[in-house]
Design goal:
By secondary structure, this protein is α+β, with helices and mostly antiparallel strands. It is about 30% helix and about 35% strand. The protein contains 3 helices and 6 strands. The protein has a 4-stranded antiparallel sheet with strand order 2-5-1-6. Strand 3 and strand 4 form a beta hairpin.
Amino acid sequence: MKFICLKYLDRNTWNSFSEGQRRTFLQECLSYDNKLRESGHFFATEAVQAAGDPVGLHRSCGQLVVEDDLHTRTHELLGGLMFLEARDLNHAIILVSDHPGVRAGWFKIHPAEDTGVIP
């Protein structure tokens, strides 16, 4: 089964890291991603720019509403997406549980719809 993992960072934790701690943390995350890749469970990832401001879209009273600065309303920062291959949800949880990102935030693991789009 394929899973889409949303990687979130706790804003307060991230802001408490020194620049050196951030570099070390990111290197640990990349190393773990490589471990998952080598085991055949990891097939794609994409990081979200830390400096990029997200934009939200929704409709209200039939009008399109575009909102920026969404991240200032919450204590979470979306750090990136990761795509996994696992036997089932429990296996995906086991694979992600040792990821260094869990120390500074959390992951949301979603089973991917089998649309044939993701190779």
